[in-house]
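Lab notes, practical 5.
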Amino acid sequence: MPIPGHFRSAALPSSIKAGAEKTGTSKPPHILVVDDIQAIIEVVRDVLIGDGFTVESTTDTTDALAWLTARPAAFDAIVSDLDMPHMSGTALLMRARQAGFKGRTVIHSGNLADANAEVLKLRADAVIEKPFATRTIGPTLRRLLA
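Output from the prediction step:
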């Protein structure tokens, strides 16, 4: 099924695919990355692919919500920026849950000091402050998905 909007699919590196086939392991976790800054998406996507995840991404929260509404079970987790045009990351997560998304959620932001900590705790399974060490995102998702 084609992905609507601005989504970009990222395949697993062949070495990870080969390792999964050899061991007979299940498919890798499928992550949706949402951020209004394309450069951040590319860094997060590359790190997650290197950590063995499959990744879809978009810079548009409206497109992300449309995809999650149409197929709420398509993703194991959402990694979303907090401050974005059209819809905040917390609103996206809340609306995704209302649409039936049951996966794990991670908010990342450079403005956590301004955010309502209680709202973040209610909406997200994990919160990561930007700038973050890229090596933290994969282990955070692995812990949440375990």
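Observations recorded by the TA: The helical segments are 14-23, 38-50, 61-70, 89-98, 117-123, 137-145. The CA atoms of residues 32 and 65 lie 11 Å apart.
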